[in-house]
Tetraacyldisaccharide 4'-kinase (Candidatus Electrothrix marina), 275 residues
Amino acid sequence: MISRGYGGATKERINIVSDGKEIFLNADYVGDEPRMLAETLPGVPVLTGIVRKLPAAEAVKMGADMLLLDDGFQHMAIRRDLDIVLFNTDKLAGNSRVFPGGDLREPINALKRCHIFVLTGTDEQNQERAENFKAVLKKKFPDKPVFFSRNRPAGLILQKTGGEKIPVQPQELADQQCFAFCGIARPEGFSQTLKKLNIEPTALRALPDHFAYTAKTVRRLIAEARQAGATCFLCTEKDLVKLRNIDLKLPLYGVVMEARPDKELNHLILQHKSF
């Protein structure tokens, strides 16, 4: 797995987050997402670097026979066998304008380079919206398959100071007063997930994506939680990896999410002719 490592402090050209057996680097150094990937994908080496072809070459030296670039559609320095473009179903293409006028990194026509589209986060509420956008994509790119992927909470974990993680059931929080917080791109998605788990937090603090938790921020969260009468903290798995060695004075739980794509997508990837 090759990542840019957004939010990490390192400027090193090659960072081995994990060799698939042992995790070497923390989230504050290499970014929250690479660290989370290293923890959730045992057996898979995870490397980062600003110039992704360098960690990619290092991964090959380590024995990799397949590379997966995280957020790599615009990274032309590495030839790809398969390009998969994801659209968040609630956001889709936004206003179809390129950043900074919109959310797109390239014009819509650049999508002709990709092989597969996936609409992520589909559910009963936005299924019609997803179907309509699928029709738009199929009209503009008739030769490219479009799949749906559903996000579902797979459970909760209690993280001890030091990083030990203990699986727990959502009902164990039934009598708790949870102070929820998250540093992700779509905090409303976290709020919706808590509703699916029947968890109603006493408060929900939304922080910027890839947020770095400083001592000052931690003190503020503790103070706000106490003021709200909270008995525990609740955050995303992405936030959890940045809080391994921080004592929040209250129990800290994290929500584990699972992506459930259409089965045909997995089959198509495995059968792709370039492999």
User: Anything to note?
Assistant: Residues 1-68 form one domain.
